[in-house]
Design a protein that fits this description.
The protein is an alpha/beta fold. The protein has 16 helices and 15 strands.
């Protein structure tokens, strides 16, 4: 058994050999106090404990409904409001506390997920990278993102993103304690996928995050996933109604049974899903609040966290789950109408939906083997990928490049690196393509795990997995991802993007026609 010391007390973990390296793991360490007494309020530090705390097993996940898209055979997550815990994996490599630190933020649409999911086991990555890997839990759904200040008062001014404040609390815990696990508190990289990456994108625009991490990796994320106070207030009213409450009885939420909160939450999710062709996201952070005073992209463009190095990218077929796994309704709207709705959600006037189809057609015409853009499902999948993931990523890069170009003399802007993951999954006869979340198993070195079997079918190229996990590790260590025998160029004016496939390559401004269409359409520069 391995002991480690934190400011709260001593923890006792376990040790295993992973790929020939001894890795110590400490699971379920509380980084903040139980949230039952702090429901809808910011986290407070965890109290000290006497003696030695057992850290051999994971702590509970945040309260959540069953994940209907969990891999076959997955164990249902054990949850509790006492969910603010983290896991640490650290390799045995002698004395010292100077290893880079990678802090993982899981995805799940701000509705589900846990640091205990087998796919996020950081042992193999820690062993290969020579790094300390941390995975955090944070509050989800209504308990993490319900807007309540107008109803419950100033104590609840940031209730609509206490889940993000949890992540900041975890990063503060890392800064104070990670040296005891062999990590360098001055060399922390926060990385995440989907909602986890969106959380990071939002955190980049939160003033309280300044100085908590040196680097960030956003896998299929955005800095644009938020609501206005008015939108959030309308959603809160709807949620209260589903709970049998109203504005005059909103305080009843403070001791409302969690199971009943989750039941109301699921009804709200289903309503949202019925009117959306992309991933339903009823619960999101709210701008114009003390912790998030303005849209994250504006804060980034003004230089907040400008010195943080960023590695960001998307998968080619981010929208395939939303299209291929959703039963088709022949009586529903035509695919062209669905595409127009998706684009409208991204600020593209419906009148310009045909222009998107034309831009996609030009991209596919230049890509041998690409599916015809005239196919309705292909068009809808691409529209979701661009609207929800790829173009927001491009805009975040543009905002950082814009600030870097105007930074004061002597200021050292953070580096920007971009990727496009294109290796296609063989699942469902190949219809999913390079789908959402496919890259996670490559980064965590879990290509042969049961959890990745559905998507990889045992055919994933190990060399690509080695390349990606090594690149992420190098980025965490130095801010510069590396490729075998080649340089990973900075994004820069040429929009250099590494294409991650069985054969890794570098492209300059890939899918340019679509980027230019979005820029012109959102700026009102298209006719009609």
């Amino acid at each position: 058994m391995k002991l480690a010391h934190t400011q709260q007390g001593t923890v006792q973990g376990t040790t295993a050999t992973v790929d020939g390296t001894l890795v110590h793991r400490f699971l379920g360490i509380p980084y903040a106090a139980p949230t039952g007494g702090q429901r809808f309020r910011p986290p407070v530090p965890a109290p000290a404990w006497p003696g030695i705390r057992d850290a051999a097993g994971p702590g509970p996940a945040a309260p959540q409904n069953p994940d209907l898209q969990a891999p076959p055979g997955s164990t249902p997550r054990r949850w509790s409001e006492d969910c603010l815990n983290l896991n640490v994996w650290t390799p045995e490599s002698g004395a010292g506390s100077d290893r880079p630190v990678l802090v993982w933020v899981h995805g799940g649409a701000y509705l589900s997920g846990a640091n205990s999911d087998a796919m996020y086991d950081g042992g193999a990555l820690a062993a290969a990278a020579g790094a300390v890997v941390v995975a955090v839990n944070y509050r989800l759904g209504a308990l993490g993102f319900l807007h309540l200040p107008e109803l419950l008062g100033p104590e609840y001014a940031d209730s609509s993103h206490v889940g993000l404040l949890d992540i900041l609390a975890a990063l503060r815990w890392v800064r104070r304690n990670i040296a005891g696990f062999g990590g360098d508190p001055q060399n922390v990289t926060v990385f995440g996928e989907s909602a986890g990456a969106a959380a990071i994108g939002t955190v980049l625009g939160m003033p309280a995050s300044d100085g908590l991490f040196r680097r960030a990796v956003m896998q299929s994320g955005t800095a644009e996933r938020y609501r206005t106070p008015a939108d959030s207030a309308r959603l809160t009213t709807e949620f209260l109604s589903l709970c049998g409450l109203d504005s005059g009885s909103a305080a009843g939420l403070l001791d409302f049974p969690v199971a009943e909160l989750l039941a109301a939450q699921e009804k709200l999710v289903q309503r949202t899903a019925a009117s959306s062709y992309a991933v339903p996201l009823p619960f999101q952070p709210t701008v114009g609040t003390p912790a998030l005073p303005r849209p994250p992209l504006e804060a980034v463009r003004a230089g907040l966290n400008g010195g943080v190095d960023l590695l960001i990218g998307t998968n080619l077929n981010e929208g395939s789950f939303s299209v291929q796994l959703r039963p088709d309704n022949p009586a529903g709207p035509a695919f062209t109408d669905r595409v127009a709705s998706v684009l409208a959600g991204a600020g593209i006037p419906r009148a310009h939906a045909a222009g998107y189809a034309e831009a996609l057609g030009r991209v596919h015409a230049a890509a041998p083997g690409a599916a015809p853009a005239s196919d309705g499902k292909v068009l809808l999948e691409a529209a979701i990928a661009d609207s929800v993931y790829r173009q927001p990523s491009n805009r975040l890069l543009a905002a950082r490049e814009e600030w870097a170009g105007s930074a004061a003399a002597g200021t050292v802007p953070g580096r920007n690196h971009a990727y496009l993951f294109t290796w296609p999954s063989p699942a469902m006869g190949g219809r999913l393509g390079s789908c959402h979340a496919l890259e996670i198993a490559f980064v965590f070195r879990h290509l042969n795990s049961p959890e990745s079997a559905f998507l990889t079918r045992g055919t994933a190229p190990q060399a690509l997995g080695d390349t990606m996990s090594s690149a992420w590790a190098a980025f965490a260590a130095t801010g510069i991802p590396v490729l075998p025998g080649a340089e990973w160029p900075e994004y820069g004016a040429q929009r250099a993007t590494v294409v991650l496939d069985a054969d890794v390559s570098v492209a300059f401004d890939p899918r340019r026609e679509i980027r230019e269409f979005f820029e012109a359409a959102t700026a009102g520069q298209l006719e009609g």
